[in-house]
């Protein structure tokens, strides 16, 4: 399975999560700087984690377009890549979000808060 999600903007920092060998790698920057993708800020095993299983179920159910854009140039950009045995997609957006985007952020917040990882980029209200 492949999973990667990133969100951020120049003025808001950046959040990224990647799945590697049943471990979620979290990269968090609260200031506008590049993320060092060789050094995750947090590593969390998700083997047998029901909250991760719920996230995967949500990801398998999404029917998003490839691209979501607005006319606003500055702001928040995001990317989602997911691949399982039955589903494969990659989508992204700039200041525009599909209807289930809040559900994705909520599922990620359940995981991050469980492990003491906080980021306001996972709050849909801060993006609107």
**Overall form:** globular
Integer average pLDDT: 90
End-to-end span in angstroms?
31 Å
* Helix-strand category: alpha+beta
Q: SSE order in H/E notation?
A: EEEEHEEEHH
CATH architecture: 2-Layer Sandwich
Would you summarize the structure shown here?
Helices cover 23% and strands 34% of the residues. The chain has helices at residues 50-61, 101-114, 124-127; strands at 2-9, 13-20, 23-29, 42-45, 67-69, 77-83, 88-94.
List its salient traits.
single chain; 128 residues; alpha+beta; Mago nashi protein; 7-stranded mixed beta sheet
Structure description:
The structure is a single chain. The chain has 128 residues and is α+β, with helices and mostly antiparallel strands. It has a single domain, classed as Mago nashi protein. The protein is 23% helix and 34% strand. It is built from three helices and seven strands. The protein has helices at 50-61, 101-114, 124-127, and strands at residues 2-9, 13-20, 23-29, 42-45, 67-69, 77-83, 88-94. The chain has a seven-stranded mixed beta sheet with strand order 4-3-2-1-6-7-5, with no helix packed on it. β1 and β2 form a beta hairpin. α1 packs antiparallel against α2. The longest helix is centred in the C-terminal third of the chain and has 14 residues, at 101-114. The protein is globular, with a radius of gyration of 14 Å. 21% of the residues are buried.
Describe how the helices and strands are arranged.
Elements: E1 2-9, E2 13-20, E3 23-29, E4 42-45, H1 50-61, E5 67-69, E6 77-83, E7 88-94, H2 101-114, H3 124-127
Parallel strand pairs: 5-7
Antiparallel strand pairs: 1-2, 1-6, 2-3, 3-4, 6-7
